[in-house]
Amino acid sequence: MLVLAVALGSGAIFASLIVGLGINASMQQSFDRMGADLVVLPDAAMVNITSALLTVQPTDASLDEKLIDEIAHLDGVAQVAPQTIYRVSIMSGMPEHRTNLIAFDPKRDFTVTPWLNERMPGAMQKNDIICGARRTENLGDEIMPAASPANVYAKLGLSGVGPFDESIFAPYATVAALTSQDKTGEYCVPRYSPTRVSAVLVRLKFGATPEQVRFSIARFPAVKVVTGARIVTSTRQTTTILVAGLLGFAAVVLLASLLLMSLLFSAIIAERHREIGLLRAIGSRRANIVRMLLAEAGFSTGAGGVCGILFGAVLLLGFQHSLVYYLETLHVEFKWPGLLEMALAATLCAVVAAAVGILGSLVPAWSASGKEPYELINGGGN
Question: Taking the complete model, does pTM exceed 0.70, yes or no?
Answer without folding.
Answer: no
